[in-house]
Amino acid sequence: MKIATILLAAGEGNRMRANIPKVLCPLGGVPLYVHAIDTVSELKASHRIAVLGYKSELVQQSFAEFGLDFRFAEQRKRLGTAHAVSVALKELTDFEGQALVMYGDTPFLTTGTVKSLIDAARDASGVAVLGFETENPVRYGRLVVGADGGLERIVEHKDATSSERSIKLCNSGILCASVDLLRLLLPRIKPSNAAAEYYLTDIVGIARARGIRCVIVKCHEDEAIGVNSASELAHAESVFQRGARRRALAAGAMLKAPESVVFSFDTRVADGATIGPNVVFGADVNVANGAHIRAFSHLEGCSVGENAVVGPYARIRPGTIIGPSSRIGNFVEIKASTIGQGTKIQHLSYVGDATIGDRTNVGAGTVFCNYDGERKHRTRVGNEVFIGSGTMLVAPLTIGDGAITAAGSVITDDVPDNSLSIARSRQANKPDYADRLKRLRTAGNR
Ligand code: UD1
Ligand code: MG
Predict the structure, then answer these.
(1) Which of 46, 72, 87, 288 has its Cβ near the most Cβ atoms within 10 Å?
(2) 353/7 Cα distance (integer angstroms)
(3) What's the CA-to-centroid distance between 33 and ligand 2, angstroms?
(4) What was the pLDDT predicted at 139?
(5) Cβ contact 172:106 at 8 Å
(6) 199 in ligand 1 pocket by Cβ < 6 Å?
(7) Which ligand 1 atom sits nearest the alpha carbon of residue 202?
(8) Each residue of 342-391: pLDDT tens digit?
């Protein structure tokens, strides 16, 4: 069976009050719409259409960043969800099969649910709508069930009578029908409602009037959460985090205080890894087996090797690879760097644009001075190097294998293998000067 997916993502998201399109608001570290698309990636749809409108160039850019291969349909005037689907149909002139309509603001659907919806639409040769029951229907459309148990119509909250508002069975917005049916029914939808919009939901009443079957497939209310405002986004984030923690635990990661760990959409924590309290994962982090991320660390765009220890209070930024069995300690920031096996950077250091070998020790308070005010430069540090505490490594620079730098040095030139480099002014001790100085001060204070 051929499938086309139509993602509606043209809306401005007025209720969100953000200055970016609603579908770009982040959930679990990636834009809302990416979650929706991920759900249908397994369907192997032959056609994938995204309806864009408000700031569509920003949304297209985001699709490109995530490597998502979609055809875009431009909805210049946002006249409603039915109008948005009609715009998508113009991109489907060469398609026959089932069309799955999804909303970019509905992130938690599961692939299994979507598959059952497609099957139900096919079996009914009609329209299948995904519904859910909730004690708090707030502003969702309500599914009105007819005497025969089938779906009779959908009424939007704004247009509902008080008895219709007491219905707890709601519309998720996701529906499936053949493209032929959509072509037949959509032109019949009129904007005769409180919002003066072309409502996709009206398709059900129109289908029924023509004897076309409309069926409901139910899902859990958490799957159907639609995000329209900042508070709904915050609620969705908490639902996302709950799920991500559950999945990490089920996969064998040890979370010491699960409720305090913040995950991203794509965080990968291997079984046998330990995550301490209050750890925050930005996008694209991979933690290997046996690694330990200690409390209050913030990681983004990096991988942590087997049995490595990071934190507490470490900040690992994009482009960083931390080798197996290395130790990254408190108040260490690392950016765009590769750290070898068994290397230690334990305290208060900044490592930027560096490649560091194996079994090297970077002393407390070391700074990789990678920026000259205009450009970034790289530093290479070999294997079994000892960087003394408080060393300033002014890039571009190469420190050879087995080299040592003296504490407090400002290293501006390359250091050959096995050399000791001292780059600081010589110490002068002045006997009894301390006493003299104190006497002079006391005299001055009189
Ligand atoms: C919609 C449903 C409602 C359902 C709810 C579930 C309609 C009329 N109402 O309401 O029954 O309970 O979702 O979350 O469908 N969009 C466009 N072009 C437009 C209008 C909207 O692309 O002209 C897109 C939006 O970007 C959004 C999606 O369609 O991703 C849904 O629109 P939204 O305004 O959020 O509809 P709801 O009021 O949530
Ligand atoms: Mg919505």
Answers:
(1) 87
(2) 40
(3) 12
(4) 85
(5) yes
(6) yes
(7) 8
(8) 999 999 999 999 999 999 999 999 999 999 999 999 999 999 999 999 99
